[in-house]
Design brief:
GO terms for molecular function: acetylpyruvate hydrolase activity; metal ion binding. By secondary structure, this protein is α+β, with helices and mostly antiparallel strands. Helices cover about 15% and strands about 35% of the residues. It has one domain: Alpha-Beta Complex (Fumarylacetoacetate hydrolase, domain 2).
């Protein structure tokens, strides 16, 4: 059997609450424009369907980690949101069957180079420069469905240095979790190990070096991360 020419990268994974086993991450799907209040604060059209984009798995930052302030931005924003982890998948999953594919939930941050997002939106450019950079996907430990049940309501909250900046119930999502899974499966074959960042509520804002971000979701293990110095 042929060997790899280079050392393969480590398998991306997340911790699981109450278990030694790790959750292997295959893909990170992200949903944009999924809360009306956030759409309004971004001056977008609330009638548009949510945007689907991806982040690389090596962008994950785990609970207690540090996010280096990224290069190529002077307007670095947080977006706190519910993350759904899948245990199974497929194509064209009916909405009525979607919840059976959920392994568990976590809280996460869709970190964003906001200054470049405006340009990308205006010119119809891809979102990678604004969404898919290094350390752009902090995600906390997964709480299994066996512990928390299927979540259809509960508050997503973000505090920056102890001050609440985001607080909204996931029941206010335009596209609910089951609908998101179903819609994604129309375009992609969902697989075990996929995680989905389900969109952020209103209250997004900029962070600077030294800021501490506390993220929580009712029934789910919380996450804390810190903004570090400029990335080298």
């Amino acid at each position: 059997m042929a060997a790899f020419a280079l050392t393969p990268p480590a398998q991306a994974h997340l911790d699981i609450t109450g278990m030694e086993d790790k959750f292997p991450v295959r893909r990170i799907y992200c949903i944009g424009k999924n809360y009306v209040a956030h759409i309004i604060e971004m001056n977008a059209d609330e009638r548009d369907p949510p945007v689907i984009f991806m982040k690389p798995t090596d962008a994950i930052v785990k609970n207690g980690g540090e996010i280096p302030y990224p290069i190529f931005t002077t307007n670095f924003h947080y977006e706190c949101e519910l993350v759904v982890a899948l245990k199974s998948g497929g194509y064209n999953i009916p909405v009525s069957e979607a919840s059976s594919h959920i392994y568990g939930y976590a809280i996460g941050l869709d970190m964003t180079r906001r200054d470049h997002q405006a340009e990308a939106l205006a010119k119809g450019l891809p979102w990678e420069v604004t969404k898919s950079f290094d350390h752009s996907a902090p995600v906390g430990p997964i709480t299994p469905v066996s512990t928390c049940g299927i979540l259809t309501s509960g508050h997503v909250r973000l505090k920056v240095n102890g001050v609440v900046k985001q607080d909204a119930d996931i029941s206010l999502m335009i596209w609910k979790v089951d609908e998101i899974i179903s819609k994604l499966s129309e375009q992609h074959r969902l697989m075990p190990g996929d995680i989905i960042m389900t969109g952020t509520p209103a209250g997004v804002g900029a962070v600077v070096t030294g800021d501490v971000l506390d993220c929580s979701m009712d029934g789910v293990e919380p996450m804390q991360v810190r903004i570090g110095g400029k990335a080298a």
